[in-house]
Design goal:
Layout lengths: L6 E8 L8 E6 L12 H4 L7 H10 L6 E6 L8 H10 L3 E6 L4 H9 L5 E5 L4 H8 L4 H12 L5 E7 L6 H13 L5 E6 L16 H4 L8 E5 L2
Parallel strand pairs: 2-3, 3-4, 4-5, 5-6, 6-7, 7-8
Antiparallel strand pairs: 1-2
Bound molecules: iron/sulfur cluster.
Length: 228
């Protein structure tokens, strides 16, 4: 396996980040977006601190303790070494969850084709008109491609959006829900309220946007709120 260090840190245990499973989290350094509400600026700007050998040694040591491994970041799919690491983790018998901004549909397809992933959390940043404003990148079409790939697969996945009132209004969220409905998405859509307790990439002002997503009208899509 390539020896380049790409993992910034490890969270040894989480009961919250993989639905109904006990897991650890591998935090991949670097990201191809620059969301102003990002809670992980040190990871986005950071470099890998751990060798792949160190990471795999840790993962193997969790064999009888955990169900799964979450690949998060940063954006794990920007690293060409990702499939090899996922392969090694799967070989140990773990379930694999990928957290992604959806910008690398080719990587997603490869992982699915090789039966290397078991769950995906896909960020829906915004519709095309606001994607650049929020992420500093124009990658909406890649997100839409990733969504279509997941729709056509049997992999369980969720779609989620972080909501800050500087970027979103209720009518705008309605439009995002409509987009997902039109795309045929039938899973849970998580609206994550912006948290005021962390540093962010864009030093966003504190938000009291709870009113945007509290008591949200139910659509055909099941909507759940996080961080209220
Ligand atoms: S929130 Fe945005 S900048 Fe931060 S890791 Fe996710 S995609 Fe990258």
């Amino acid at each position: 396996m390539n020896s380049k260090n790409i993992i910034y840190d490890i969270t040894p245990f989480t009961a919250l980040d993989y639905p109904d499973k006990l897991a650890c989290i591998l935090w991949f350094a670097g990201c191809n977006m620059r969301c102003s509400y990002c809670y992980n600026p040190e990871i986005v700007h950071g470099k890998g601190n751990l060798t792949n050998k160190q990471v795999l040694k840790f993962v193997r040591s969790r064999n009888l303790l955990l169900d799964g491994v979450v690949f998060s970041g940063g954006e794990c799919t920007i690293h060409k070494e990702l499939p090899d690491i996922v392969y090694e983790v799967k070989k140990c018998g773990f379930l694999v969850k990928i957290d992604t901004n959806g910008s690398n549909p080719d990587c997603l397809q490869l992982l699915i084709d090789n039966q290397l992933i078991d769950y995906v959390a896909l960020d829906f940043k915004a519709l095309p008109d606001k994607t650049y404003k929020i992420t500093q990148r124009n990658l909406f079409s890649k997100f839409a491609e990733s969504l279509a790939i997941l729709q056509n697969s049997s992999i369980p996945f969720e779609v989620r959006t972080t909501v800050h009132s500087q970027f979103f209004s209720r009518p705008y969220i309605n439009k995002m829900v409509n987009f997902l409905e039109t795309a045929g998405y039938t899973g849970i859509y998580y609206l994550q309220n912006f948290r005021n307790d962390c540093n962010t990439l864009g030093n966003l002002i504190n938000d009291n946007g709870k009113y945007l997503i509290n008591n949200f009208i139910q659509y055909n899509i099941h909507i759940e709120i996080r961080n209220l």
